[in-house]
Specification:
The complex is a heterodimer.
Chain A (H helix, E strand, L loop, with lengths): L11 H7 L13 H6 L14 E7 L5 E7 L1 H5 L3 E5 L9 E2 L6 E2 L5 E2 L5 E7 L2 H10 L1 E6 L6 H5 L1 H4 L16 E9 L5 H5 L3 E9 L11 E6 L5 E5 L4 H12 L6 E5 L15 H11 L3 E4 L2 H7 L6 E9 L5 E11 L7 H11 L8 E9 L15 H18 L3 H8 L19 H10 L29 E14 L8 E11 L2 E8 L8 H13 L3 E4 L17 H28 L6 E4 L2 E4 L3 E5 H5 L4 E8 L18 E14 L4 E12 L6 H20 L5 E2 L2 E2 L20 E4 L16 H18 L5 E2 L3 H5 L3
Parallel strand pairs in A: 1-14, 10-31, 12-13, 16-17, 20-21, 27-30
Antiparallel strand pairs in A: 1-7, 2-6, 2-8, 3-7, 4-5, 9-17, 10-15, 11-12, 11-14, 15-16, 18-26, 19-20, 19-25, 22-23, 23-24, 26-27, 28-29
Chain B lengths: L2 E5 L2 E5 L8 H8 L18 E4 L2 E4 L12 E3 L13 H8 L9 H14 L5 H7 L11 H20 L1
Parallel strand pairs in B: 1-5
Antiparallel strand pairs in B: 1-2, 3-4, 3-5
Helix pairs in contact in B: 2-5
The chains are: A alpha+beta, B alpha+beta.
The complex binds FE2/S2 (inorganic) cluster (FES) (2 copies).
């Protein structure tokens, strides 16, 4: 077993020293220097001579019929070049990731607060803003369908979409549903086998990705009648696939290039400004730039599904789980986005990394007049983890057992089955990860005599001097799938070129992978160096000139595009060796590339690559597909649905001011199995970032929606953790290779966001004794003044 | 209106500036300095932080007209004339504190100002000083590392001089 402990900053020095620039090292980011100089071109930095600014008019109502739209006053404003409504769309009026249910511009009705109705192009953003204000829309305002009760009774409250539309997946206002039954299911006889039964309702609020770089891009009309779009996205090819039919263009005339991306976290999986900027560029014949303001960003992308969940667990006196029963209701909002896949994840991962002989589950996503929800880090696994981990703590309390011990007693490991019947055929060190966080040293106890008050809950606001502070500790573990599931042919493409430039062998890696900050570009260079034995690697800008890389989501890019780079580089290596064999008649079968040469492992260097290649480049493209999966059976949820699983465990230490209801997380520890850390520095950065988003969901982050209206679309009112809210996050990395994955690696980015939220809440519970069945936990939940 | 000021030591002027434009807009869209970032334009995230007459400010909250005749230093100005990275910039790269990097320009300016005031801040001082700069990617741990690293290098440099 190969394991390695890398604890936060302490070992930074060691990582550097061990660093080679191949895999397993931590070379610096190729884009780092540009980024610290302020020269890296993010999508909002795009500029073109003569360019116009685009802006959208958005609905103030969550549900209304549009009686009329009058654009005449807006068009009269000097500096306005175009005002478009759905009437002006040349092609199909609808798009969508899985279900084409979303109009590019509203047609006759609006279904959520912030839906785009018309778009404007003008010579200055302020002119565009004024023009938007001059568009007159007459509405017939309708009562929005926003609660589960309203959604599930469409005969009484109405339909979000007409009953005959988009019903391949669901019915009524249900967008998608998935059931699951495992073992004997949950019957009276099975219930009777349990000594202790715990049942509770849980609720998760609507979280936002809140990436810092606003949605933005520049659409440039091309001479061939096509569009060149420079944009921040997670998946260039799927954007193009959705855009082309709306623009009335063949796909090859819609060319996308990735512009610098300021974070994504799922929020850029759906289209935002892509179609709008392109329509305006088509109409005006001029380049059009759209940059969302922060409030527009909150309206312009999908969020994490808020959830209402009921969980029931039965356990024997000695702590063995007997059954688990759950119902998860996800509010998908007005349009489907990724809801069907989120439901699949919620159902199949919703009982956690535990062996439970008898299981039942139903997960549904609703259509409502709330904001649309779709992909966000942890995708469908986050909501359930809060519920099942809360249940584990409750069961442990009922049994008088240590909560970590209870989890370990029921933890799944390699060879066990998921509730879907899928056997886990690679390491699943759930109990070990829990042990690792438990064994890490605790921070020193709170010493109120000598404390710097700035470190207490409430921090700088100097609200107390520690009178009401209680410390708590909580634990959790979570499971997340890697890659796209349920039969999706998930693949990625890479082109690798090896040539001599300036007297040195240089590899070039070209993919369409969206680098959103995660560090994929660093890893691609490491893979090319490792496989080709060269120092110099350049990364070609990501665009649609090469085949699809799939999405930068589902923790899949290092696995999928990294895998494609590996395949392409290996093919280049073989081609180079073949060339040498043909020319020099080598017969050894231990040839490889290293140190810029062709080498025989037994005989040493044969020839420098520079001499073998001369002026001839070797340039090859390969696709990487992961092993096939199948859709879950609709009624039983059975099937080999996921490619790979990933696990993370956490421990949280919190100080809670029980009088003021304020929480300060003192330390948040993580232990995760990453299979193989291709770049340990990046891996740690991903885990720490993922934990921090989980902390946000636990104690502060929520889009407040009342009667379908968003109340806090700003960074003033939607709070994300600052550096003061975020504690030290020591990370312990385990490397147990997955035999099915390239280099044995395991996706990293999402698992900590799944697992870290429940452990913070567990710690607050331990400190306060409150039930805390809803997140984010607010001060009034702690003080009981709700 | 016309606005003239110095940006990173060089005189700049912008014409036809509309009275509601922010310093951030003028820097990014009119004088070719897009390094300062536009993440909220409401003074909440710190991505647009620049020095104005030596004091870090959110440039999205400064009206363009207010900088007439004054000195602005942006992230682009942290690099020296030869294009050599400043000490804080290098530390952010070395510590892995840059992921998407959108928060980075603002954090660099704020960190530069912090270390100018106090070359050896405590962890709590660092957290207090950077609490107006949001980062959504890193979890801040690597940013803490970067500031500590910059501080150590700055002190070592001062000692050797
Ligand atoms: S853009 Fe100025 S503080 Fe956010
Ligand atoms: S690195 Fe992305 S916001 Fe800080």
């Amino acid at each position: 077993m190969s394991t390695r402990t890398i604890q936060g900053q302490k070992n930074l020095q060691d990582i550097r020293q061990a660093s080679k620039d191949g895999i397993g090292g931590s070379p610096l980011r190729p884009d780092g220097t540009l980024k610290v100089k302020g020269e890296f071109a993010y999508s909002s930095d795009m500029w073109h001579e003569d360019m116009l600014w685009g802006m959208a008019l958005r609905s103030p109502h969550p549900r209304a019929n549009i009686l009329s739209v009058d654009i005449s006053e807006a068009l009269k404003l000097p500096g306005v070049y175009a005002v478009l409504t759905h009437d002006d769309i040349p092609g199909s009026k609808f798009y969508g990731l899985e279900i084409q249910d979303q109009p590019a511009l509203a047609i006759d009705k609006v279904r959520y607060h912030g839906e785009a109705i018309a778009i404007v192009a003008a010579d200055h953003p302020e002119t565009a803003r004024r023009a938007v204000k001059k568009i007159k829309v007459e509405y017939e305002v309708l009562t929005p369908i926003v609660t589960e009760e309203q959604c599930l009774n469409p005969e009484v409250y109405g339909y979000v979409h007409e009953p005959h539309e988009f019903k391949s997946h669901g019915y009524g206002n249900i967008c998608h549903s998935q059931k699951l039954v495992h073992g004997g299911g949950v019957t009276d006889e099975i219930r009777a086998l349990a000594d202790v039964i715990v049942k509770s309702d849980y609720e998760v609020g609507m979280q936002d990705q809140a990436f810092l770089g606003p949605e933005s891009g520049l659409a440039v009309p091309a001479e061939d009648g096509g569009i060149d779009l420079y944009v921040a996205t997670q998946w260039l090819h799927v954007d193009r696939q959705q855009m082309a039919p709306v623009l009335g263009l063949p796909e090859e005339k819609v060319r996308l290039t990735l512009a610098g991306v300021g974070g994504a976290f799922g929020g850029r999986e759906d289209l935002s400004m892509q179609i709008h900027a392109s329509l305006l560029a088509q109409r005006t014949g001029k380049p059009v730039k759209i940059v969302y303001a922060r409030d527009e960003s909150f309206f312009g992308h999908v969020h994490r599904h808020p959830a209402k969940m009921t969980y029931e667990h039965g356990v024997t006196r000695d702590g063995k789980l007997v059954f688990a029963d759950a119902r998860i209701v996800l509010d998908g909002g007005a349009y489907a986005s990724a809801s069907p896949a989120v439901v699949g994840n919620a159902a199949s991962l919703g009982h956690g990394p535990y062996n439970i002989p008898n299981v039942r589950m139903e997960a549904i996503a609703l259509y409502s007049n709330n904001p649309s929800c779709g992909a966000m880090r942890g995708f469908g696994a986050v909501q359930a983890a809060f519920a099942y981990e809360s249940q584990m703590d409750k069961l442990a309390a009922e049994l008088g057992m240590d909560p970590v011990e209870l989890r370990q007693l029921n933890a799944m490991s390699e060879g066990d089955s998921m509730p879907t019947g899928q056997v886990i055929d690679s390491p699943a060190p759930v109990a070990e990860l829990l042990q690792r966080v438990k064994d890490m040293p605790l921070p020193p106890p709170l010493d109120l005599e000598n404390v710097d008050v700035r470190t207490l809950p409430g921090a700088l606001s100097n609200t107390s001097h520690g009178e009401g502070i209680v410390r708590g500790i909580g634990y959790s573990v979570g499971i997340k799938n890697v890659g796209f599931s349920e039969g999706f042919d998930d693949y990625s493409t890479a082109r690798v070129r090896l040539e001599v430039i300036g007297g040195e062998p240089v590899a070039m890696v070209h993919t369409a992978m969206a680098e959103v900050g995660q560090g994929g570009v660093t890893v691609h260079a490491q893979i090319a160096r490792t496989e080709l034995g060269v120092e110099q690697v350049t990364i070609h800008p990501a665009n649609t000139e090469v085949g699809s890389a799939g999405s930068t989501s589902a923790s899949r890019q290092t696995y999928m595009t990294g895998g494609a780079v590996k395949l392409a580089a290996e093919a280049v290596k073989q081609a180079v060796i073949e060339k040498g064999r043909r020319r020099y008649g080598w017969t050894q079968n231990d040839l490889t590339l290293a140190g810029g040469k062709v080498v025989s492992e037994s005989q040493g260097a044969l020839i420098p690559l520079v001499d073998l290649l001369g002026d001839e480049a070797v340039d090859l493209t390969r696709e990487h597909h992961h092993r096939p999966t199948v859709p879950f059976d609709k009624e039983t949820g059975q099937g080999f649905g996921h490619v790979q699983y990933t696990f993370c465990a956490n421990r949280a230490v919190v100080d809670v001011d029980v009088e003021l209801g304020l929480v300060k997380v003192v330390e948040l520890t993580a232990a995760q199995d990453v299979g193989k850390a291709l770049n340990p520095l990046s891996v740690i950065g991903q885990i720490q970032g993922g934990c921090t988003q989980a902390l946000g969901l636990a104690v502060m982050e929520e889009i407040i929606v009342r009667d379908g209206k968003v109340r806090n679309a700003s960074f003033t009112d939607y709070l994300i953790p600052t550096i003061l809210d975020t504690p030290p996050i020591p990370v312990d990395i385990l490397e147990l290779p997955d035999p099915n994955a390239p280099y044995g690696l395991r996706g990293v980015g999402e698992a900590p966001t799944v697992s870290a939220t429940p452990c913070i809440v567990a710690a607050i519970r331990q400190a306060t004794g409150k039930a805390l069945n809803r997140i984010p936990v607010r001060p009034e939940h702690i003080t009981g003044t709700l | 209106m016309r606005v003239t000021f110095t940006a990173n030591g060089k005189p700049v002027e912008a014409d036809d500036v509309w009275e509601g434009e922010s310093l951030l807009y003028v820097l990014r869209e009119r004088v070719g300095l897009p390094g300062s970032k536009n993440a909220c334009e409401q003074g909440e995230c710190g991505s647009c932080t620049v020095y104005l007459d030596g004091t870090p400010v959110c440039s999205c909250l400064v009206a363009a007209g207010q900088v007439q005749g004054r000195e602005v230093r942006t992230v682009e100005g942290l690099t020296d004339e030869n294009g050599e990275l400043g000490l804080v910039q290098q530390a952010f790269i070395d510590a892995g504190a840059v992921q998407c990097g959108f928060c980075t320009p603002g954090l660099l300016v704020q960190t530069d100002a912090l270390l100018d005031n106090d070359a050896q801040p405590s962890d709590t001082d660092i957290r207090e000083a950077l609490s107006g700069n949001l980062c959504r990617c890193t979890g801040y741990e690597k940013i803490m590392d970067a500031v500590r690293l910059a501080s150590a290098r700055k002190c070592a440099k001062a000692a050797s001089e």
